[in-house]
């Protein structure tokens, strides 16, 4: 196994357990310089990162490395690829130029003009009952930009294929007609660009640039919630493009009606076209996706192993892929494909997600944040509809995630009777089992809870 492959396995692991921002902050520009029989040397960009990797992620990094190379006892970090006091065999240092990390590599696949990644196409997108409407609508608009559904709004939980589908629309539009002007951008990038343009007084130029587009794709639009200036400028751009029949495609983690602090005029624009959701894929679709990824990566493994992954990882396709990558990393190190028993062993650590700890404050904050209500209102006596449901969700999550007793939860939520809490818990529990929307909301809130805790 090359250093690059070993480090890639670590990055894959870390990426799964961290928020994207966190992952980028701490792992961008890192690489594995050398590894000998019992230690490895990791290059980091600066002292700040070095300290964090050593203190905060050191154990997890070592564990991951050891799950692949049990003989490794130690991980050392060095700034900018300069060797510091690590006794290693000479040959291990033969290649001293820092290797490209995962991230640099995927950057290279991204077109500078459109921000599109060629990897994401309709051809590599597996269609199942969870995404067939979103898929059909996406494909339909590429045949006649701006004329079929405008805007197209796609929503669904994390890791379910929104970005893939949005990018496929862009790639398809260009492959059909090279002259089409396409731009893919995340709403966070867009907001940053707007702020920058306002500062440099180049906002008019920016608007003009956008006005020339045939297809504007904005990913994760929910993040413009509460950003008034961005919403203003976006509204103007939206109208301009829409008026000229130019295609707009948006994605979000939830439907427009559920994005708090989104101006009414934008909400009604978003709802004016086609809204399609992506849900959690069923077993057959998960298996088909795994087979597709194997084909893409030119990797062969027995169907039993794939079936095992598909039946154990259900809610997030990115994680499904992560598990497969882990198997691939194993094959590269040992230059053999793991058999079923080894696959089970490899994934054991992965499936028993480490015990995650949270606090009741973090839960309350995340719930309030998700529904766009003040945290204090969850505690107050209000019976307003907008508050009652978030409060019930908070009760449910407090029970599930902290295992607090019902009376304890009642007292944390403004001295409510424990029977109220039990009622809320049972109601949401039932919804979680039977209602797709509630299930997804809970997943999203939990993601927030554990991110807040990390940060
Ligand atoms: P989201 O934007 O919804 O968080 P992504 O589009 O980033 O999710 O998808 C996460 C990963 O899962 C990507 O690597 C993507 O290629 C893959 N993926 C998701 N859905 C499918 C699908 N239906 N077919 C093939 N790959 C998929
Ligand atoms: Mg995405």
The fraction of residues in strands falls at: 5-15%
Largest sheet: 5 strands, parallel
Q: Report the principal-axis shape.
A: globular
Count the beta strands. Answer: 8
Spans where pLDDT lies below 50 across 5 or more residues = 82-105
Distinct helical segment count: 20
Order of helices and strands: HHEEHEHHEHEHHEHEHEHHHHHHHHHH
Distance between the termini: 33 Å
Class of secondary structure makeup: alpha/beta
Short characterization:
Helix content is 56%, strand content 9%. The chain has 455 residues and is of the alpha/beta class. It folds into four domains: 3-106, 2-Layer Sandwich (GMP Synthetase, Chain A, domain 3), CATH 3.30.300.180; 132-278, P-loop containing nucleotide triphosphate hydrolases (Rossmann fold); 283-351, Helicase, Ruva Protein, domain 3, CATH 1.10.8; 360-454, Orthogonal Bundle (Chromosomal Replication Initiator Protein Dnaa, Chain: A).
What is the strand and helix layout of this fold?
Layout: H1 3-17, H2 20-27, E1 31-35, E2 39-44, H3 47-68, E3 74-79, H4 102-108, H5 132-143, E4 152-156, H6 162-176, E5 182-186, H7 187-200, H8 203-211, E6 215-219, H9 228-243, E7 247-252, H10 264-270, E8 274-278, H11 283-296, H12 303-312, H13 317-334, H14 340-351, H15 360-371, H16 375-379, H17 385-402, H18 406-412, H19 418-434, H20 436-454
Parallel strand pairs: 2-3, 4-7, 4-8, 5-6, 6-7
Antiparallel strand pairs: 1-2
Helix pairs in contact: 1-3, 1-13, 5-6, 11-12, 11-13, 12-14, 13-14, 15-17, 15-20, 17-19, 18-19, 19-20
The structure holds adenosine-5'-diphosphate and magnesium ion (MG).
